[in-house]
Amino acid sequence: MNPRHAKRFLLFALVAVLLGVTARQGFGDAWVSQYTYASAPAKKEPAPKPAAPPVAQEPDIVMQPKPVALSKRVTEYHIDVKLQEDTHMLAGEQSVTWTNPGRQPVSEMYFHLYPNAFRSKDTTFMKESGGQLRGDKATVDSTGYMNLLSLETTEGYSLLPRLHYVQPDDNNPNDLTLAKLRLPNAVAPGKSVTLRMKFEVKLPQVFARMGYAGDFVMAGQWFPKLAVYETAGTRGRAAEGWNIHQYHGNSEFYSDFGIYSVKINVPSSYKVAATGFQTKASVVASGRKTYQYYADDVHDFGWSASPDFVYAEEPFSTEGVPGVRIKLYLDPLHAKFKDRYMHAAKSALAKYAQWYGAYPYTTLSIVVPPKGGNGAGGMEYPTLITAFAAENENPGYDLERTVVHEIGHQYWYGMVASNEFEEAWLDEGFTSYAEDKVMESEYGVEPNLPVEASYMTDPAPLKQLSWSYHSSNHYAENVYMRAKLVLFGIEKQVGAQTMRKIMRTYFQKYKFKHPSTADFQRVVESVTKTKWNDYFSHFVYGNAMSDYSVASIHVRPVKQKGETQYESVVLIKKTGGSLGPVSVVFHFADGTLMPKVWDGKQDHIQYKIVHSSKLLWAAVDPHNDNVLDNKHINNFMKADIAEKSRTRWSVGIAKLLETFFASLAW
């Protein structure tokens, strides 16, 4: 074997190893959108200095609520919470008012008590997740809970004996994440009921979006939260009623829009990042500081606190972003990346506003957790997101990608409030698609869709309960990756401009509502003036991919007008769903390239071509335009290899590997 052949052999061996390794790695990291193939910027960052970076003082800027309601504001929360930092406890009181949006009297209410997911290893969340989420593992200290200490009417009548834990999804008696309350009096349509409650939360060592890491605290899903009462017609619902589910390993959240007024009491050395904005200046007394936050037209409230935050703030305005205070709460290790965080935030806000619609809030807070706090990283709350933890002193594009992705959730999770229990793809898939668009537009990082499609080893329907996927990898593979490819598949057929119109129309029509998959399909059909039943049946409601292959080639000499010609018979097959017309190319020994276009409507087509020289090879979809083809290796076939030992190789794969190696700085 000469050196050239040896080098080639080693190259292909490494390819096989790399593909095998990546296939085994699964898709846990896709939860936080880590599937990037671009190399980090070449610029080397200076080593961190021993001294702590200068700390900017938080300005106590008081703001006022908007005069116009953007949503129905079904709920109104007034919460006081105190962080007991020595015991990692939250002591809370809340008054919650619920207005019946339906047409029937309602005699029961349901509350999500999410911290109870960490009460024991026998909860539904812990059993399904196995104590792992997004590559983060629970520790022996990742135990937490929520106790309701009191529950009363405004008249002081105790309702706590009327509260019962329910498990409608799996009948697990050890799961206390959903509670049913029978009201003493039914709430008439359009009328309201106010309840007062006291509660305590034991924060776990940071895991699954909440908890503590040293002095750092992430309070996500931390208060008793009302479930969503869906009116008739919402998400295709025939009759109104509560949408109730437990907290599962493969699911996030679903809530109604409302108003939040929250007082947060922490040690005076702590800074607080929270949903919304301050309505009063912070008050310091007896070594404690109290913040007063307010948010309207949001369906959740999250906050974070730490004495180590390095604070930075910049105003930002552009078309569709009339005026936003971007607030950074940086871990000291990432303080030097302030400008990168700001640039990513501004780029994302500007593009999403330009493409889809205005960002209507006045603040956007970005929290960078400390090393060891990645369980709180890569998460979204209304007007507040968390980036990756500061684990790396020289992060690549993951820094920007995470910020861009989580800000995308302000649109598809925050304003278009999809039901993430039942139709998670409407948030995660849409956000992943939008993220790729911003990364390409602002950073020149193009998505490698054929490689991502090749990872689709176990496609499943997108519209199904989140916990119906058999693992977190399976969930992420479909809800993030495959869902994004489905949207790119629509774009391939209608063009980028029409696709942007589809996405904008969908956002504008369903912001501050709760849309369904069927609602999105109706928008696609309305904009394109075309029926999309087959596409949605195959790729959304079904588990199909769209695999095209060169199935066989037969070449034989024939005589025509006394001259020897060659008849080539090529069979092209389609397995799975149709993705529209596909190109086919034939390459002959005399150098002739003969392109064809197959409409792809049938499950196969046979080409019979008579030419003056032999056919060397045939390829279907040579440019990998079919983004839902997960088996590119069968797109290409040589004609001159014996049938029983015939091997296939894809023209597209070679290009993909070249890109793949370049991304690894080979």
* N-to-C span: 24 Å
In quaternary terms, these chains amount to single chain
Relative strand content: 25-35%
Tally of separate helices = 11
Overall body shape:
elongated
Largest sheet features: 7 strands, mixed
- Parts with pLDDT < 50 across at least 5 consecutive residues: 1-52, 643-666
Total number of beta strands: 31
Average predicted local confidence, pLDDT: 89
Helix fraction by DSSP (H/I, runs of at least 4): 10-25%
Gyration radius (Cα, Å) is 28 Å
Strand order of the largest sheet: 6-9-2-1-15-18-17
Helix/sheet category: alpha+beta
Structure overview:
The protein is 24% helix and 31% strand. The chain has eleven helices and 31 strands. Strand 4 (132-133) and strand 5 (136-137) form a beta hairpin. Helix 7 (472-494) packs across helix 8 (496-510) and helix 8 packs across helix 9. The model is unreliable at 1-52 and 643-666 (pLDDT under 50).
